[in-house]
Specification:
The protein is of the alpha+beta class. The chain is built from 2 helices and 4 strands; from the N terminus they run αβββαβ. The chain is elongated and about 50 Å long. The chain starts with a helix and ends in a 5-residue tail after the last strand.
Amino acid sequence: MKLLALSLIFVITSSYTRGSEVYICGTTGAKKYHYKENCRGLNSCSHGIKKVTLKEAQGYGLTLCGWED
């Protein structure tokens, strides 16, 4: 029972942190955020890919990339 509870906690916390960081193309001019660093939508990024939190990206007014929704 104890092992089951620990396993459940691990699954919940690992899935929560997986989506908490996203990738954007630079910090100015970006319109979308991406869950994967190798997303097709980042192929033409010339400003450098930056990792930020999901809350930061949404705070910049960015929306999810169309290739990932």
